[in-house]
Amino acid sequence: MNDLSYTVMDRLPGYTLNELMYRRPELLEEHKIVISYQLGLHTAFSYVFGLRDGYQSNYVFDPVTRILTRIDKERFLELPPNPDKTLQPQDPYTQEIASCELSNLKYMHSFREGVDRNQVVDALKEGFMDKYDDIKNKKQDLLQLVTHTRDTWLKLGPSTDVQEYEKETQKLASTVSFLVDQDPKRVWRRLVEAKREVDSRPETP
Question: What single DSSP character describes residue 43?
């Protein structure tokens, strides 16, 4: 699967989802299915690799190439301390991923109004499943990438206890491996439920 959508760049042609909603809503509606599908790709990636802050301002869509790019990856490998609980009700990790990623659908007028809502959700789910399967197929390569990323951070970051850092790297790789091995259908259902849990919380004054 093509991973160009995960390229990190400072400036990209196109519009954030927020800009599309307020400045070019007709483009958002025209491309809602392809955008939803790619949001599904990103959601799977974010869940498995602890990529937080999947807000609308961190997604840029280019209507020419029809590629949705994630532009902010500062919070990467921020994984759950208890990965065996991510499929349980009220798990904060799953809730955070769901509340960020799935909330992006609300920027589509037809989704908010209930028009084509099922098609939009189905496209997001399809992208999620496709990406999860792709991650499973590339598991060993991606685990090596986790280790390589951590090694790079060690070289570029401030001095630290190398042994402790390596232990943490092993734990992160083990967590990613655990999340990769989960059933994507169960993960999807849990994300949808987690979004409902977040939405049902009473508003704070």
Answer: H
Domain boundaries, the chain: 4-137+184-197
Give residue for tokens 């602890």: 50
> Where would I find the beta strands (DSSP E) of the chain?
15-16, 59-62, 67-70
Taking alpha carbons only, the member of 124, 85, 118 closest to residue 103 is 124
> Alpha carbon of 140 to those of 6, 59, 119, 135, 148: distances in Å?
19, 28, 34, 9, 12
Q: Model confidence at 11, in pLDDT bands (50, 70, 90)?
A: low
pTM (2 decimals)?
0.89
pLDDT band with cut points at 50, 70 and 90 for residue 67: very high
Structure tokens at 128: 């999620």
- CA nearest to 69, candidates 130, 140, 145, 14: 14
Name the fold adopted by 4-137+184-197. Answer: Transferase(Phosphotransferase); domain 1 (1.10.510)
Distance between CA atoms of residues 82 and 199, nearest Å:
23
Cβ-Cβ contacts under 8 Å for 96 (sequence gap 6 or more): 52
Chain mean pLDDT for the chain: 90
